[in-house]
Specification:
single chain, about 240 residues, mainly beta, 8-stranded antiparallel beta sheet, 7-stranded antiparallel beta sheet, 15 strands, about 5% helix, globular, disordered N terminus
């Protein structure tokens, strides 16, 4: 190898070490955590009430099953992450299922500045407070309840599909994977509603989350079931 080739080889190796690093901020393991330690409900109870949130095994699959109630639950991230120029992407994904009889209620995922679920209504954000981003949707082809959103100190901006179909849950009574990808460089949130999609089903542009610190992940109830919940960050 001559000096020129050696120089570029060193530069290339340096670029590899400077590339984005993925950090896992949260990873559920319901099979190993049947008591749901670390999760918090609307009553600020940790673990949450077992009558409303329980880990079950059916057809060889172990998952979290929620009651048909309005109040979701949250879990702190392994560490808070501040959205600044050191962050490339933050990804929230969940493999979920909406059983028969729960289709009238929307599913939801969120990353919030809150440490625990909001005590006013068991949601990701206290009414007119807090910061973060979320997705809400279900199988009904209605525009308003199917949306992406981000908010800063309670001020929320939403995006809905401009043309039908409006529903974000496109596979009823089947396990699907929902993924939210916040790209800080592009200032946008992409939503994928099934595994393997190459193009987002919905995108929210011009997202302004600079300086926001995310502290917890939130998931909706309304009878929804969750096999996995995962949060990762790519940092420079």
């Amino acid at each position: 190898m001559n000096a020129r080739h050696w120089f570029f080889a060193v530069i290339s190796a340096g670029c590899l070490t400077l590339s984005a690093k993925e950090t896992v901020l949260f990873q559920s393991d319901f099979a190993k955590n049947p008591e749901l330690k670390g999760w918090t409900d609307v009553h600020q109870k940790t673990p949450p009430g077992p009558k409303q949130y329980s880990v079950v095994t059916e057809n060889g699959k172990t998952f979290l099953k929620t009651a048909k109630i309005y109040f979701g639950i949250s879990h702190k991230l392994s560490r808070g992450i501040t959205i600044d120029d050191t962050v490339k992407r933050i990804t929230l994904s969940a493999t979920l299922f909406q059983p028969e009889g729960s289709s009238g209620h929307p599913l939801g995922l969120a990353l919030s500045s809150r440490m625990t679920v909001a005590a006013d209504a068991g949601q990701a954000f206290w009414k007119l407070r807090d910061s973060g981003f979320q997705v809400q949707g279900y199988s009904h082809n209605l525009q308003t309840p199917n949306f992406l959103a981000y908010q800063v100190e309670g001020k929320q901006v939403k995006a809905m599909r401009p043309t039908a179909p409006f529903n974000l849950l496109t596979a009823r009574e089947k396990w699907v994977t929902w993924t939210l990808v916040y790209d800080h460089e592009k200032k946008q949130i992409d939503f994928f509603n099934m595994e393997g999609q190459t193009e987002p089903y919905l995108t929210l542009y011009n997202v302004k989350l600079d300086g926001v610190m995310l502290n917890s992940v939130w998931i909706a109830a309304w009878g929804a079931c969750y096999e996995t919940v995962r949060v990762t960050a790519e940092v420079k």
